[in-house]
């Protein structure tokens, strides 16, 4: 992964390690924008490293991308609960990795290579076993959305990327990003995972499942 990142002119790779303790030392002693984290660290578990980094976010803006193998994909929900800013599951290219790094630096939640599918699947399973009761504020905000915003929210909630939404609606990628920015502002959420959660609470995920 370090080799892939170093090939990108806009990314500076600081260091790499397989030690959880060394990773914490590096991220606390340097000005690190993004940590790319695998699950198989020694000394200090990856989950503990992630938890500690998230606890420090009030004073240091380090974003964390967790990379999972196909066999580790079941951990997607756990690392998102711990606060990961991005999750990549299974194989990926150098372009994918650099896209993820730029995305989390810009403040977006990045789910790639099956991570979005797992998150959507989890929401659907919960919805089937216990249909949500939306709060009045959630319902009011939903009614305040334009038809296009609601359409984009539903497509995003079902795991479509920004580019896929643009293709399905025959509009520009920039236009979709503008709508997503407005959606996050109107609904009071900070990232794509928040949009999916909102769609689940208000029943959009249930009715379309």
Automatic annotation (TrEMBL):
<keyword id="KW-0238">DNA-binding</keyword>
<dbReference type="InterPro" id="IPR000792">
    <property type="entry name" value="Tscrpt_reg_LuxR_C"/>
</dbReference>
<protein>
    <submittedName>
        <fullName>Response regulator transcription factor</fullName>
    </submittedName>
</protein>
<keyword id="KW-0804">Transcription</keyword>
<feature type="domain" description="HTH luxR-type">
    <location>
        <begin position="138"/>
        <end position="203"/>
    </location>
</feature>
<dbReference type="InterPro" id="IPR001789">
    <property type="entry name" value="Sig_transdc_resp-reg_receiver"/>
</dbReference>
<dbReference type="Pfam" id="PF00196">
    <property type="entry name" value="GerE"/>
</dbReference>
<dbReference type="Pfam" id="PF00072">
    <property type="entry name" value="Response_reg"/>
</dbReference>
<keyword id="KW-0805">Transcription regulation</keyword>
<dbReference type="InterPro" id="IPR011006">
    <property type="entry name" value="CheY-like_superfamily"/>
</dbReference>
<dbReference type="InterPro" id="IPR016032">
    <property type="entry name" value="Sig_transdc_resp-reg_C-effctor"/>
</dbReference>
<feature type="domain" description="Response regulatory">
    <location>
        <begin position="1"/>
        <end position="105"/>
    </location>
</feature>
């Amino acid at each position: 992964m370090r080799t892939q990142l170093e090939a990108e002119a806009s990314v500076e790779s600081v260091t790499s390690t397989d030690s959880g303790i060394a990773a914490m030392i590096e991220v606390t002693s340097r000005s690190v924008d993004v940590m790319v984290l695998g699950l198989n660290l020694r000394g200090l578990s990856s989950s503990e490293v992630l938890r500690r980094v998230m606890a420090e976010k009030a004073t240091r803006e380090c974003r964390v991308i967790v990379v999972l193998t196909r066999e580790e994909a079941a951990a997607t929900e756990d690392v998102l609960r711990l606060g990961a800013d991005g999750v990549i599951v299974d194989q990926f290219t150098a372009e994918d990795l650099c896209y993820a790094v730029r995305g989390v630096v810009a403040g977006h939640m990045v789910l790639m290579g099956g991570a979005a599918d797992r998150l959507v699947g989890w929401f659907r399973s919960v919805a089937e076993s216990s249909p949500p009761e939306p709060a009045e504020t959630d319902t009011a905000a939903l009614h305040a959305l334009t038809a296009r915003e609601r359409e984009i929210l539903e497509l995003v909630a079902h795991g479509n990327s920004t580019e896929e939404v643009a293709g399905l609606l025959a509009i520009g990628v920039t236009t979709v990003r503008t709508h997503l920015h407005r959606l996050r502002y109107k609904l009071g959420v900070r990232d794509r995972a928040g949009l999916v959660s909102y769609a689940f609470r208000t029943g959009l995920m249930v009715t379309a499942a």
